[in-house]
Amino acid sequence: MRVAQRHNAAVSGRADGRPMLFAHGFGCDQEMWRFVAPAFEHDHRVILFDHVGAGGSDLSAYDAERHGSLDGYAEDVLELCRELDVADAVFVGHSVSSMIGVVASIREPGRIGKLVLVGPSPRYIDDEGYVGGFTRPDIEELLGSLDSNFLGWSSAMAPVIMGNADRPELGDELTNSFCRTDPDIAARFARVTFLSDNRADLARVDVPTLVLQCSADAIAPDAVGEYVHRGIAGSTLVRMAATGHCPNLSAPDETIAAIRAFV
């Protein structure tokens, strides 16, 4: 179980159920799914894991070249699937893990049978004819701030990402999650995340896909969810009442219901 240990993988639910992988976003770990994943254990084989550099993963497994693009993270997912004999899985990816799941589904057909993309963005930087939500100077400033003062950046940005200003405990939890992440790896993963461009991959997705779009999402605005929905043929777009970028924490019941209706 070398790969499973590397990613601190936890398997629960029905051994004979359809596999369901939950992948966390930047600065998070598998704990971010603790209110959602258990709802699927009675009829799925639920697999939680940490990306290298997060949570209880093996930090020594981080490879600057391999993990210098989302392709490396997608290969991590596929290696985990091979070791755990996973096929036709439901892949639930939050934020950047949405695109990691997209890449993995294309790279090795048959491993992933359905995609659930929670707050996805194929490109964070605006481009001609495309609204990503940020200008390039915005992102460069964000990355520069992260490089110079990771803890300060975490304290400032986590509440913005979480939204739900009337529930400050949610922003505090995300801040604490960021602060538990190895800062050097987090800084590199941030560059991979915010400078990525996976728009061309959307048209190559050929599995049923659910796009969950939150209201007032500062990281992946409504126009981005619409773009992902249009780009993936036959996909389903659900606009959630939940606000912010982390409905797995802020609105788990609504998140569960939307996923349950799809799977």
Characterization of this structure:
This protein is of the alpha/beta class and 263 residues long. It has a single domain (2-262), classed as 3-Layer(aba) Sandwich (Rossmann fold). It contains ten helices and seven strands. It has a seven-stranded mixed beta sheet with strand order 1-3-2-4-5-6-7, sandwiched between helices. Strand 4 (89-94), helix 3 and strand 5 (112-118) form a beta-alpha-beta unit. Helix 2 crosses helix 3 (96-107) and helix 4 (136-148) packs antiparallel against helix 7 (183-194). The longest helix has 14 residues, at 70-83. The radius of gyration is 17 Å and the shape is globular. The two termini are 28 Å apart. The model has no long low-confidence stretch (mean pLDDT 94).
What's the arrangement of secondary structure elements?
Elements: H1 2-6, E1 10-13, E2 18-23, E3 44-48, H2 70-83, E4 89-94, H3 96-107, E5 112-118, H4 136-148, H5 150-162, H6 168-180, H7 183-194, E6 209-215, H8 222-231, E7 236-243, H9 247-250, H10 252-262
Parallel strand pairs: 2-3, 2-4, 4-5, 5-6, 6-7
Antiparallel strand pairs: 1-3
